[in-house]
Specification:
Blueprint: E1 2-6, E2 9-16, E3 19-22, E4 25-26, E5 30-33, E6 38-43, E7 46-56, E8 61-66, E9 69-74, E10 76-77, H1 78-85, H2 89-94, E11 98-100, E12 105-110, E13 117-118, E14 123-129, E15 132-137, E16 142-147, E17 154-155, E18 160-164
Antiparallel strand pairs: 1-2, 1-10, 2-3, 3-4, 5-6, 6-7, 7-8, 8-9, 11-18, 12-14, 12-17, 13-16, 14-15, 16-18
C-alpha cells in the first residue's frame, strides 16, 4: 500500500490481482505506453497525455506532466507510514552523521561543498569501482559538515567520505 496526496486530498493506492485500487475502490483505466517516458490514458471517457519528467526512487517522488500541468507526487510506502506513526521519520534523518564508502574505489567527482544542504537522494560523490562509475547519494536531508576526500583519492570500503551535521 502507498499513500500520497492527489489534488490536495490524501489518497491510498494498492494493487490487487485485478488491478490498482484507489481509496479502497477499483481503479479502471486504459493505459498505453507510447515511449519510455510518455503514456496515453483513458479514464472515465476522458483522454490524458502523461509524461514522466522525473523519477527519484530514493526520495520516492515522481514528477508528471499531465495534459500540460505538472504534478509532483510523493509516495509513502508502509514502512514510511509505520516510521511516521511511531514518530521516528525525523529521528532517522537526524541520526545521519557520516557517509561511508560502500566499496573500495577512486573518487572521480564531488558534487557538493562544505555548508551545502542536500536532500535525500541528491548525488554527493561519484566513486569509480571495477571500471564503473557509481553515484553516491545523500541518505537523508542534511548539511555537509566536512568532506574527508578529494577528487583522485583512493578509498577503502567503510572509509568516511562526508560528514553531515
Amino acid at each position: 500500500m502507498y499513500q500520497t496526496t492527489l489534488d490536495q486530498q490524501p489518497a491510498t493506492i494498492d494493487f490487487s490481482a485485478t488491478g490498482p485500487v484507489l481509496n479502497g475502490e477499483p481503479f479502471s483505466w486504459d493505459l498505453v505506453r507510447l515511449t519510455d517516458r510518455t503514456l496515453h490514458i483513458l479514464y472515465q471517457d476522458r483522454s490524458y497525455n502523461a509524461e514522466v519528467l522525473e523519477l527519484n526512487a530514493a526520495a520516492k517522488t515522481v514528477v508528471l506532466k499531465i495534459n500540460g500541468r505538472i504534478h509532483t507526487i510523493q509516495l509513502k510506502d508502509r514502512f514510511d507510514l509505520l516510521l511516521e506513526k511511531m514518530g521516528m521519520s525525523s529521528a532517522v534523518a537526524a541520526k545521519i552523521g557520516d557517509l561511508k564508502a560502500p566499496m573500495p574505489g577512486l573518487i572521480v567527482g564531488i558534487t557538493v561543498a562544505v555548508g551545502a544542504t542536500v536532500q535525500k537522494g541528491d548525488t554527493v560523490l561519484i566513486l569509480e569501482a571495477m571500471k564503473m562509475e557509481n553515484t553516491i547519494k545523500a541518505p537523508a536531508e542534511a548539511t555537509v559538515k566536512a568532506i574527508r576526500v578529494q577528487k583522485g583519492d583512493r578509498v577503502e570500503k567503510g572509509q568516511v567520505l562526508i560528514e553531515f551535521g
